[in-house]
Structure formats: structure tokens, C-alpha cells
Amino acid sequence: MNTRPLVIIGSARKESDTRKFVDRIFHARDHTLIDLLDVQINGFDYTHNYPAPDAYPAIVEEMLGHKMIVFATPVYWYAMSALMKTFFDRFSDLITYRKTIGRSLKGKSTLLIAVGADQYLPEGYEIPFKSTSEYLDMNYLGYIYHCTKDELPDLQQIQDFIQKLNGNN
Fold first, then answer.
1. Closest Cα to residue 63, out of 38, 86, 88, 45?
2. 0.90 cut: is pTM over it?
């Protein structure tokens, strides 16, 4: 089992504020990064007929190899990015025809990194991350939020987040 955190980032730009914040948090920490801009993930299909290429199964396999999974997304219109939402919609595969794989996520830990222009994370923003984790029997450990209007992120928040990454929550 890989002890490095797996970071899955879903931003519409490669050099986004979200990516810069992820890089700041993980600058001195070994991690695996999957940028959803680099892969093709098909939208959820009730018939489970996904044309190639479809990177979702490979990403889930990567998730199975890590103890800690970090979702990183900007705040777009008070919600996660479209890339991240498409990714999350596909969790439906793991409770229908890929149940064995879905059950294999049990016990993994998840965290959220969110970046936006508002002073505070919108109310209810973290619910899909928290509830999805709980539904799949993963341990949701919380989030860190960075407002892009602040010149520097709150260093205490970053230290607290790193403690959660280290399993010291």
C-alpha cells in the first residue's frame, strides 16, 4: 500500500490557483498527482457503455493503491468543477456493476483542497466529498480552503492540513 497521498486535481487550467495551492502544500512532500485535464473520463452512463478512451477505471485502480486520497478543485459557482463532478458521478459505477472495487475503497482516508475567490468556502460545499466518502466507507478527514484574494494562505491552516495528511488528526 502506497503511503504517498494521491492528489486528484480537477481545474480548468493547468497553471490554476488550485494547482499553485496544491504545489505549495505538497512542495516538500512526496505524492502522486493525477490532473483530470490530462485524461479522458466519460460521463456516467446507466448502461455502463463507456467508449475508449476512458481513464476512470485506471484512476480507481490508482486510488486502491493509496491510503490517502486528496481531491483538489476550484470553487466554480459555489460547487466543484465540472471535471471533478464528472469524476464523482462515476462513483456510481462502484456501487452498481463494479461493487467489489467500490468495497475495496473502505478504510481509505480522503481530504479536500478547495480554492475560490470568496472569503469563505460556500456553505454545503464539502457535502459531496464528505457524504461520498462516508457512503463508500472511507474516512473523510476534512478540508482546507484558500481564498485567492489573500496574498498568502493561512500557514496554520496548512500545518493543520499537513497533520491530517500525516494521519495525526
1. 88
2. yes
